[in-house]
Design brief:
The chain starts with a helix and ends with a strand. The longest helix has 26 residues. An 8-stranded parallel β-sheet has the order 1-2-3-6-7-8-9-10. Helices cover about 35% and strands about 15% of the residues. The protein has one domain: TIM Barrel (Alpha-Beta Barrel), CATH 3.20.20. The protein has about 400 residues and is of the alpha/beta class. It contains 9 helices and 14 strands. About 40% of the residues are buried. The radius of gyration is 23 Å and the shape is globular. Helix 2 links the parallel strand 1 and strand 2.
Amino acid sequence: MIRLGNRSKILSIVFLMLLAYSCKPALLISDGTVFEPKEYFPDFSWNTTPMYYMFGDMERVLSVDEVALIAARTDFICIEKSHGYNELGAAELGAKHEAAAFKKLKPNIKVLFYFNSAWAWPFTSYNKNFTAETIDNYPELKKFLVINPETGELNDRRNTYSFDVLNLEFRKWWVETVAKGVEESGCDGAFIDQMHGFFFLREDKKEEVLKAQGELIKALKKKLGPGKIVLGNNANDAIAKQAYPHIDAAMFEHYSSKLTTKENLLKEWEDLLKNAKQGKISVFRFGFEHEIDKPDRTDKKAYAKEMEKLSKENLEFYLACYLIGAQPYSYFQYGWGWNLADGSLVDHPDLLKPLGAPKGAYKRTDPEGWEFTREFEHASVWINTDSRESEIIWR
């Protein structure tokens, strides 16, 4: 039996816990509604710029210091397609190694396993036989690949073959394979790259291809279950419309300068709002390498040093692009490629400065112009996406 005094104490503690929870600041979307994150989403905070990291090193796994550096900056990462391949023999082993290392240091961090739905990258043990040297020995796998209609041969790019999403047996194999990779690597979900299904090789079947792509992602989400994250690259594009309902998160990759035009950025800010209202995570990834004259790569150390310098010089503009449209569970990713050496370990002090929650939606100074401003608790952001000028005042 609980004595009255003890019961009162228990009720008081419960009341205080509920009060504390209710006083926790809501994650407000820019239209004033509240973002409702799913239980399995990463932790999110406006304390500093919310960062997403995605990296790989084909030669090796991370050092202890590198794990600590990245873990201090983010709660949300993806291990790239060939990470640790030469050291461990298979990419899923690289993902497993890093997932364990990060979770040991930061148990709540969310780690994604990479898999491509278009290109048969041969870096995992699951894909190792999709090579020119071995594919003819595996007819059951060869039938999963696209034939180039112009050559009559297997479609390939730099000796990497193309998956045929129209093949039902392939879709079953792919879903089982991705789910196996997530489980065996100990990851929290999957990053799915390139969801176009090679419709451009068979325009007469475009709608059929895109429908099959949607079925592929729907089946994967069902297989993984509700507790795993499915992040689709460029999932806000029209070609991914069939897959979009079945993803938890979408990346805006900005893989060319045509994707950072003033018109496209404005559209993407609206897409960030749409994603937030649907309870989806967004990753705004910028690679400035597409918009500069790249330095000479003959001397690798000199090249890396110069790219780091350019990275620092260009950061403010791309960070402003992100901050103008950022919503709860919108993450910023920045660098000049997907390798570990392409920016993941660069120190950017501005990304660690106090930011604070946005005070409202962005403002367009002239309905016909391209100047935008937005206020955060500790930063004022201004950008002109036509002249490509920006300023962030930290306070």
